[in-house]
Amino acid sequence: MDSVWGVTATQLHQRPFGELLRQWREHRRLSQLELSLQAEISTRHVSFLETGRAKPSRDMVLHLGEHLSLPLRERNHLLLAAGYAPVYTESPLDSPHMAAVCAAIRQLLTAHEPYPAVVVDRGWNLVDANEGIGRLTEGIDPDLLGNVLRASLHPDGLAPHIVNLGEWRAHLLGRLRRQITQTADPELGELYAELLDYPCDQPEPEVELPGPGDILVPLRVRLGDRELSFFSVVATFGTPLDVTVAELAIESFFPADPDTAAFLRDTPL
């Protein structure tokens, strides 16, 4: 699964507008007629745009990106392919006008303690974390800590301590597959292929089915002689206009049972 379309990220971004438009339309499983009806333009015009017989205006590129539900990064790529400058900034988190965003993230992370929480970017790279995550990462190979999926599933990471590794691994890989479907990101495809090669000695369910009384897939971790159980909530910024902000995700882990809650509250960080 190196790439959804069998190309590298560089090759993907160098493709002509019409080719990218067609690929995104097909990736969304839309016919030219269906896209034309959604975007309220003629099927003929869609066809001319895809074949290069017509050049889109800047507004038309943005209009199509909206109706194809493209992430902001991919809308910028579509604009570049059509010969226009990107409209969505991609700001470093340490830039001055991102101060409010960083402050909000830090407030959420701190308020969630003593329970663990992390912030990741589009590639699941660790952006920030609270003190509570230290309980789960103690003893993990430091080289793995830069990427949350690698740290979770690698045999030198958290994986040997996850009681329900097969179930949790299937859950994480399923989330990554859905993200790849949404973004068609070749780099995420490469990460997925890497993770598939990590060993797992437990069955991995193809479909997440609830057991008796289950309402969520738990993360069950053994620390010493104690088993902790968590469920997670993923939050994103609701109205992003910046690529960096749009791709941030805050995953907060909550205790799934009273024993876990009591242990986390009573044990100093």
UniProtKB/TrEMBL annotation:
InterPro entries: Cro/C1-type_HTH (IPR001387), Lambda_DNA-bd_dom_sf (IPR010982), MLTR_LBD (IPR041413). CDD domains: HTH_XRE. GO terms for molecular function: DNA binding. Pfam families: HTH_31, MLTR_LBD. Coiled coil: none annotated. It comes from Planotetraspora phitsanulokensis. Residues 21-75 form the HTH cro/C1-type domain. PROSITE patterns: HTH_CROC1 (PS50943). This is Transcriptional regulator. It comes from the Bacteria.
